[in-house]
Amino acid sequence: MSPRMLTLATTHLKGPHIDFAGLSPLIALLGGAVVVLLFGLLGSRWVRAQLVPALSLVTLATALGLTIWQWNEQKSIVAGALRIDSLSLTLNLILIAGGACTVLLAWRSLAAREAAHGEFHALLLTSIGGMTLLAAAQNTVVLFVGLELLSIPLYVLCATEMKREHSLESGLKYLIMGSIGSATLLYGLAMIYGATGATDFSAIAGALSTGSLATDPLTLTGIALCVVGLSFKASVAPFHQWTPDVYEGAPTPVTAFMAVATKVAALGVFLRFFDVALIDAQASWGPAVAVLATITILVGNVGALGQSSLKRMLAYSSVAQAGYMLAGVVVATKLGVQATVFYLAVYVMMNMAAFAVIVARERETDLGDSVAAMRGLGRERPWLAWPMTISMLALAGIPATAGFVGKFYLIDAAVAGEYTWLGVVIVVGSMISLGYYLPVIAAMWMGSAASEAETRGPSAAQRPPGGTLPALAGGSPELDGEAAAAESVPATTGVQPEVAFVAILAGAATIFFGIIPEPLFNLVRGVGNALGLF
Amino acid sequence: MPALSILIWLPLACGLLGALVPVRDRRFPGALAFLGSLAALGLSIGYLADFKSATASLQHVTDVVWISELGIHYKLGIDGLNVFLLVLTTLLFAAATLASNLRTSKEAALSDDDPVKDGSSERVQPERPRLFYFHFMLAESAVLGAFLAQDLALFVAFFDLMLIPFYFLIGGWGREPGRVKATIKLVIYTLAGSLLMLAAAIATGVLASQQGGGHITFVLSSLQAMPLSRGSQEWIFLFFAAAFLVKMPAFPLHGWMPDGYRAMPIEVLMVFSGVLSKVGAYGFLRIVLPLYPQAAAHFQILMLLIGLASIVYGSVVAFTQTDARLIVGYSSVAQMGFITLGIFALNPQGAQGALLQMTNHGLVVAAILFIVALLARRAGGSEDVREMGGIAFRAPVLASLFLIVALATLAMPGSSNFVGEFLILLGVFKTKLAISVIAFAGVVMASVYALRMFIRAMHNRTGAHVDSREISLLDSVVLVPLVAVILFLALYPQLALHRSERSIRVAVARAQVANNPPNLRTASLRLQRPGGTLSEGRAVAVAEGYVGK
């Protein structure tokens, strides 16, 4: 090696300046993942079943604290690879809240137990890390890395109930479909790179703003492929087909996490990539994405009608909700970005309340996630029935819930962005959605006496004094013992307190922000400024 | 007078307290709810007494910013349009809560010696009273909010919200068979309209502020100052009309009504039929005519025809029905048709008649539904008029009360309903002669179904399971005040007319001008011109004066 080359190598090896303060939430999440993984290796059952989730919560709390510490920062870090601004920080906040709820829901779940606790929670934290990376991505390479970092742990998480075929199927399906999505996205990113010669969002935006590049066929193909790839992640129709099966098959806490956090990350990247990097090509992709949003809203809402599995129903509903939120992306205005982020925050609350109740009922009855499990809940467990009711009403967009304000904001943004017809599509979608949200409420509060007796009979009989679900402990002897130990405490009390806590907290927040939405508006106010970057 | 917020939220507070305070007595939530609704009634009567009829501007205004980002204000106010509807709402809710309470205590007193009770298809005592009264009071708060809201977004929020407690009330305490199905049908029907209205309302705010160049706002008075283009007005009008017509209900959007009426518990039906249908009609006067006057003029014929179709269809179906509730239900469709006619006569007479008729119909329909419940108890639980009959023999007081209400329903001269219908027909007569001529037939048909129901139930041969009794003291506590108010209004309709006059003129003015554009310029000429009638010219002049301001 000649000395000249050596000097070249050393000058090239000089890394970019790393702003550790800006990176700190991500470092905390990934570091926490390692710590949790190591603790999961310890032999003590108590450490694995209790300390590991507690440490996960501590990790999330640390990341939350660091996010708040960075709150008013506006900077690009790591040589412009990541952007710390109110959009990424707000999304962090939402993601961490969603993650914390997931940890609580998974605390005593079968999935976490079968995946040996440590691994489950480490994967979860890694996935959240990937999401925060994605929310801050400022470069197509980082975007792709973030997307994979969030997806790969999720593929595994879906399959963590290893003894249940559906869970494995769900993981495999998600892996295949997710890979197709990633490959498509990568191809699209490569084409955009080919057209603009840049991987940096700001450089892409700069290249598109000059000349006729914004209508160049190569750029347009690249954009189209990116739309498709991200649509897979955000479960936007017609790329949503995996959603119902995967949501239904995955362990419910993981479903909750996917429904909530993945959507936040995917829409976050939609906002960043389309409303920032590709803003000058908006005339090309805007109408196309608007049509996608319309299809998504209709397909999601119609698909959810008549589903007897609540998880499937919520899967389709999440497809529809993604369509609503795309309306905020399409208009590519400050108002649109704010409305989307607002709705994302609300969306997390509404869905977490619903999933927490489903988790509670799954553990309590042997009806799984079917609507029948909700029958008579209003009489039996009002403290679970109310959050579920509020969640359904909020998802349908009824006033006095945050869902109403969120939808109001989105329609407002759509009309102001001259997409009035998209606003009308949103309300038409909401109308259809009543057809599946209301029957859930009816099942909880209006079940006839006969059917209530039916459901109560077996559920009471199924509840032996020792554990809730004997069928679940039918695995290996090792698991049997662990199950008995883990389940002996909560089983007698019925609903586990942390699950009820999530349900009630999310339900109360949905009502609170429906009546006093000003704090949430303050949260998202700065978010729109992310648009004005370039 | 205390702030209007107290009037709105007092019922809900009582409902919440009743639901949350751990008192073992099952009667506690009901008693508290009744006290709350009574207090609300007292407050609204206070507002009525305090009302200044010399002005069309809002009184007792509360105006705070609710969501600054979206320009939504929490703005409440009273004027001639809503002052009587407030009293009507609180009166009917108080009566309905009392009715529900009394049945509760009566049930406790008469345990076994009441043979009718077993056959009665009514639930005698609301199960889960805490929840029942919570939803009931939430409904009252939401309805009052919708009447008082002076901000478009706030109105839409209350309008949508008020359906939710009814969803629970009907689904949870309604009558089998098919209460859940009926409920879901009702809610989807009405919320579908409401959601269209939501989109239209947001579009109004956004487009008006874009055209006006200001910050987005939904306050009605500000929106009026920033008129929309005609094209936007027209689609927005149709969305609003869909919401309001479903709620009223008007033909052909009444599909939810028969099932809904059959399924509702009687107290709930009293307020639903008496008050909720009025919110739709009120919405036309409060929002549609002032904000979308050109569209209102453009679609005048369509709306008049819908009103006319409702009258004819409702009346004809009403006298083929045998279920007493459905007779009342279809007669409501007909009555709401009259109200639609009055509103879309687009002149002050018609609108005033419509407003008066809203109050009248609310009072009458609540009273008649309560009577239906009383009759059903005497006819072995059946609400079929064929199984009633001969009830008047042993119940002369009940029969005379029923007769008063029935005569009011058919708009007998001397009743306040007569004044209302007369004004409506007068208003329509002035604008569209042919339509008013056909509408006159509706008045005749009303007498057919009202009298048929009265005769079938009270006279005729005694029904097989009829066990006639006089109205009990407790039941008359509910019914007599309602009848007294009907009689009072019959003697003194000027009470309502006088107070609403100015607000009505303002509400209708723009639409009236839009309806007769040439008059705008020649109004002053027409005053002297021999051809133009004096009153017409004056109305236009007033209108023009308002617009000029």
Question: Could you characterize the architecture of this molecule?
Answer:
The complex is a heterodimer of chains A (534) and B (549). By secondary structure, chain A is mainly alpha-helical. In chain A, 76% of the residues lie in helices and 1% in strands. Chain A contains 23 helices and 2 strands. Chain A has helices at residues 3-13, 20-39, 45-69, 86-106, 110-114, 118-136, 140-158, 165-196, 201-209, 217-234, 242-249, 252-277, 282-304, 310-331, 334-364, 377-380, 382-396, 402-416, 420-445, 449-461, 477-491, 497-515, 518-525, and strands spanning 75-77, 82-84. Chain A has a two-stranded antiparallel sheet with strand order 1-2. The model of chain A is unreliable at 449-493 (pLDDT under 50). Chain B is built from 23 helices and 2 strands. In chain B, a hairpin with a 4-residue loop joins β1 and β2. Chain B has a two-stranded antiparallel ribbon. With 549 residues, chain B is an all-alpha fold. The A-B interface holds A 338, 378-379, 393, 396-400, 404-405, 407-409, 411-412, 415-416, 420, 423-424, 426-428, 430-431, 434-435, 438-439, 441-442, 445-446, 448, 517-518, 521, 525 and B 67-70, 128, 131, 153, 156-158, 160-161, 164, 167-168, 171-172, 176, 179-180, 183-184, 187-188, 191-192, 195-196, 198-199, 202-203, 205-207, 210, 216.
Mean pLDDT of chain A: 84
Q: What's the helix-strand series of chain B?
A: HHEEHHHHHHHHHHHHHHHHHHHHH
Task: Describe the global form of chain B.
Answer: globular
User: Structural class, from secondary structure content of chain A?
Assistant: mainly alpha
**Which structural class is indicated by helix and strand composition of chain B?**
mainly alpha
H/E topology pattern of chain A:
HHHEEHHHHHHHHHHHHHHHHHHHH
The rounded Rg of chain B comes to 23 Å
Helix content of chain A: over 70%
Note the main attributes of this structure.
heterodimer; A: 534 residues; mainly alpha; B: 549 residues
